[in-house]
Amino acid sequence: MNLCGVVAVQARFQRDAGSIKRLFFDQETGRRLGMICKALAASRKVYRCVEPAELEKIAGSIHHGGVIAVVDAPKLREPDARTIAQWKEKRAPLVLLDRIGNAHNLGAIARTAAFFGVRHIVIPAHPQAALPGEAAFRVSEGGLEQLEVWRTKNLAGLMQDLASAGYDVAGAAARGGKPVALVGGKNLVALVLGNEEHGLAPAVEKACTRLVTIPGSGRVESLNVSVAGAVLMYAILTGR
Question: H-helix or E-strand containing 25?
C-alpha cells in the first residue's frame, strides 16, 4: 500500500519506522525527510528523489503530497469476547461505522477519533464499507496511525455484546433520536455512525441502546457523516 503526504508518512515513521519498505519523494519535499532517509539508508532500503510525474505514476493519483512510502496494507482483526472485556476494563470509547462507503469519510472520521483520544474503530465486513487504504490514510493526516481498525462479520451482534458488557451504544440518526445536547453521557460509550445515504441498517438501529440526533435549523436535511461524527464525538465521547 502507498502512504501519501508528509504528515501520513511521518506518522508512520514515528509509529513503526521498520514498516516503511521504500520511499519516493520530489526534491522540495525531500528536504523535510532527512531523518527518514537516514533510517532507510541504515536499513539498506530504497529511497529516491524522483520527478513529480514519476510520483504521480507511482501513486496512481495527483494527490501524493510530494512523498510516497510503500508499506504493507493493514491486517484487520475481528473483535471477540476477550477484546470486548479488554475494552470494558480500559473503559475505551469506541466508534462503530455501519457501511461508511467513502474512504475520505473514513479517513476524516479516523482523524477526529484520534484527536479525541479514541483508539478503536470497528467496520463491518460488508462490500459497501470502505477499508483503510491509501485515500483513507492520506485524509486521516496520521490519525489512522493512532488507532486500530477492527472488522466484524456481524456488526449488530457485536453491538448487542457491547450493550451486554455495559456499553451505551448510541446510534446517530438524522431524525427521531434525542437531541444530543440533552443527552447525558456514560463513560462507557460506543458511537455508531451510519451509511452516507441510507443511515443505520434496521438491524444495527435495533441493536442501539439509544438514538441521538443533532438538532439543526432544518434548512438542510443532515450533515456529512464525518462532520456529524465530529460533533457527536465531542458531545458524547468526551462528556461535554
Answer: strand 22-25
Average pLDDT, whole number, for the chain?
Answer: 93
Q: What is the CATH number of domain 81-237?
A: 3.40.1280.10
Are 235 and 181 contacting, i.e. CB atoms less than 8 angstroms apart? Answer: yes
pTM of the model: 0.92
| Of 134, 5, 11, nearest in space to 66 by CA | 5
pLDDT in tens, 42-54: 999 999 999 999 9
Please state, in angstroms and rounded to a whole number, the distance separating the CA atoms of residues 3 and 12. Answer: 9
| Residue 52 Cα distances to 26, 48, 55, angstroms | 6, 12, 5
Q: Where are the chain's structural domains?
A: 2-70, 81-237
Question: How many angstroms separate the CA atoms of 124 and 131, rounded?
Answer: 10
Q: Residue 118 burial by CB count (10 A; 0-12/13-18/19+): exposed, middle or buried? A: buried
What are the angstrom distances between the C-alpha of 146 and each of 8, 69, 120, 121? Answer: 11, 17, 9, 11
State the fold for domain 2-70: 60s Ribosomal Protein L30; Chain: A; (3.30.1330)
**Paired strand residues for 2:** 70
DSSP state of 235: I
